[in-house]
Amino acid sequence: MEVILLERVMHVGQMGDVVKVKPGFARNFLLPQKKALRATEANKKLFEGKRKELEATNLQRKQEAEAVAEKMKDFSVTLIRQASESLHLYGSVSARDVAEAVIAAGTKIERRQVELPKPIKTLGRHLVEIHLHPEVVVNVAVLVARSAEEAEFLSGGGTLVAETERRAQELAAAAQAAEQQAATLLDNKSEAPADGEAPAAPATEEK
Length: 207
Description:
Blueprint: E1 2-5, E2 18-20, H1 23-30, E3 36-38, H2 41-71, E4 76-80, E5 88-93, H3 95-104, E6 114-115, E7 120-122, E8 124-133, E9 136-145, H4 148-155, H5 163-191
Parallel strand pairs: 4-9
Antiparallel strand pairs: 1-2, 1-3, 5-7, 6-8, 8-9
């Protein structure tokens, strides 16, 4: 199906472009969201007659989105979830969950503005794109943690480690420390004089 884009659509085209898209994408998204019109001759003339008005409206919305994006610098939200020792969630975090958290934090957005290709299924700090406008995108840090303390640790730049990995790191560190201690003992032993052997006299400078 051919449509005329009424605004920039990511991976599709710019405002005013006549593009061919899948019928389902047009019927389920572009047309009901008023992002496009069917590319009929009548609609092409209609678009050209309203082009300046559409461009002015788009510019205003873009400026408003940029103002919101400026306020959302270093923006983060926290979602408390239960998870296993391997950091895998008992469930997942969806785009709707992220949208609700952003709204609760004081910024009004819609679920469709959250770009989350697949649900979040692990604890940690995840960067999620929020499309405030077709040309304005902001990254939001989504902190998925088991407690407020864990979320605070993540917000400070910390990284969660799975229990099995932590144990492995502790064992590796202990083994390395033991090796270093053994190497030190061997060095000390090799430098010590043998039984019954007098220590070597320090060298004297010849006159």
